[in-house]
Amino acid sequence: MCVLASILPTSFVLALLFGETRGFTLRELWAYAFTSDLPFIDATILDLRLGRALVATMVGAALALSGAMLQGLFRNPLASPSVLGVTSGAALGASIALVLLGGLGPASWLRFADTMPLVLVPAAAFAGALLVTALLVVVGLRGASSSMLLLCGIGIASLCGGLVQTVQSIVLRDWELSASITAWSFGSLDDRSPVHALPVALPLAVALLMIPFLHRELDLVAFGEDTARALGVRDLRLRLQVVLLSSLLAASAVAVAGQIAFIGLVVPNFVRLVVGGRHGTLLPLSALSGASLLLVVDLFERSVLAEMSLQPGALLSLVGAPIFLFLIIKESRGQGYW
Amino acid sequence: MTRFEVRDLVVDRGATRRAVDGVDLALCSGTLCFVLGANGSGKSPLLRAMAGLEAAASGAVLVDGEVVARLDPRGRARRIAWMPQGLEVPRRVSVFDLVASARYPHRGVFERLTVEAAADIRAALRRVGLEGHDRRRCYELSGGEVERALLARAFAQETPLLLLDEPTAALDPRNRLAVAGLLRDWVAEDGRIGVVASHDVNLAAQVATHIVVLDRGRVVAAGSPESVLTRAGLEPLFGSNMVIGRRFSALAREERPFILAWDDGSRGEAESVPSRRDRTP
Amino acid sequence: MRVVAASAAAVDWCSWLGLFDDEAGLRVVAVPTQALRYANSLPPDFEARFPGFAKFRAEVLFGFEPDLVICDDYQNALTIEALRRAGTEVCTLEAIRGFEDLRTNLARLARALEASVASQRVAEAADRLEAERRALELQVAAGTESWTKWRVLPCYELGGHIASAGRGSSEALLLELAGVANVATDLGLVGHDKVRLERLLEVDVDCFLVSDEKDIEGLRRRPALAQVAAMREERFVVLDARLRQANSPFVLTAARALRAQLELLANPGTRDG
To answer: What ipTM did this prediction achieve?
Structure first.
């Protein structure tokens, strides 16, 4: 527990010290943080690394926490923000925005094209994700069970996925445009500023503050929905809270950094293997581990793989999936897992 | 004193089927009521409706005069414990955590588990014979042990009313008797009320103080074991394939009827041992 | 003045403007590694002289301490924004969809290089651009050879399909400047898109424009194309992929090269002479 908790600050500091260009010393970092008598170029590089590290922390934590909550609610280790359709909704919003900005929209928009993608694409992604969230909440309010909600999410996800593909095949003729959409769908942390961390930090703060009101309920849901109800859990309210929180987390993370797969699905499972299924520890530790993992993987990509541009999602899957498979196979011998 | 009433309860399954069709029931402290019935006779829906898990199409369930459906969920869980059918539990949860989950309706949001509550949980485990097993994980338990752990959870909920759906269906005969004994003692101790859905007639014969026989959602027989456990009362459950006898029961500390599912070809004309034939109206 | 040419098109422009010269009055300090594969007319010792980088990221670019970064306008907007925020000038280039885009880009480069000695070269380049174009126009207007009537289909393999470049692509501009008709436009293609073979048979093609022998093999493997005039007459012109994709003034060079190739194909006798 303490080990896990110390990984985050350590990796955060390392993410500032090392990168594609020069490494800094702790003394220089100190100067950057408190005395600001660094050469301009060094300060600029540290600004960039700080923005990147903050966004990685927030996005990693948000995706992992979102996945952990959903897995608890649906009692299914396969649940993650993407099965709810929230990520696909965001992808749809972003693609539409990119296409409108890329020349298929009104000509007047192009005048703003220099600054609009910075705001409009994330905003559209967020709007797309919110639309899906609203749909799920409506379905949830009508009293759908958890498995119904899950199925609804999967349906919405494939609908949005189909629409994204439609948009993509329409603009396939436009190299620049399809390159932008593909780049977005890979997900990236490139050149985010600290401001980008803010829209993720807000829902993350709310979700972390809500953990005391959710973790026991989610523990009880593990015994079955009926048992949880019989023990006094307000199941409808719990479902709505979890779906809303995890959707907001995923929506903001995806809006800022694109689709970074793997974290939402694997990190909570990973943490569950290590510390067990009590949500009181599982939820905060998932957030912590998601943040640390994304920071470390991104640091690795920036410092070691300098000559190769690899997106965090791809790298995460390459590095994390084999370890995860090994753990699962080891664990599944004899005792079972969930 | 607790009073538990079911008034003209109707539970629908879909548009065409009535799972529970106008059940009336009134139970008071110290009653261990067995609801007997064949598969599909409506035992589980009746219990779920009693626990407030299923909405009634009409009628009402009342605890001490209060309508269960209108109680807030935690308040309801402080009065009614419900134990579902089957032995499904999360595999990696410890026995202690499994039983401790019963304390949820008694705890505030930021309240930690008190020393007294932990002691209660250990006491519940001791009662069911799982003392010292609290650190084991559920996947390490046998079926009988899981059943006992679930029973311990129901006890640890400290409710005046206990509803159990087929608590002995997965157990061997010895464990069945042991669980029945635990239930009888728990109910007798503090004037609680227990309702057990089961098709184990012989268990009912030994520990029940009241028996209700359900057939297609309706009560076809109700009363003391002696009055219900007759050929006519058990017809919905056995058809005519039964042999009824009497024998001393250590659990009941007196002579009780026992029933053998056995087609002796007599078609109800003769009984091997005489018993009272009066049927309760 | 330290300049980073951050895309293949930017490297093309620098190369066309002669900014890789030692006497250019500025120093190109870095180029993307992919430019080696896609840029035109690079100096022979290019790879050794100009350090390459793989990632278009602000920190990587800052590492070269540039005064000016030249890149494409569809590259990561956040990176461009970060560079500008830190006081580095960024000149973004339009993709070439028509001749007007060449002028626009040249004007932007002129503005970006205003302060440097290299502005002289940019001014000369503007004249060169117009002159080259006029020369081509005159040739096209005077052309009476049989091949000037040919209808050409630029094509390449794309995921098992034949793809082509229609209206609004730099390859369409290349054909337009060379003075030959683009079949892709007849097919109604906009930008780069798949070619439907059925439609192709309907409109017919006189000549295929390809990048190498492999492309020709690919076309021959499709029996449906046997009926097309270009196939019956074995008319293929090969133009290096870098020139075909030239998102830069090299599109003019490419147009001249295409005319020469077509001439050669129409009058094979000149080859021996």
So the answer is: 0.86
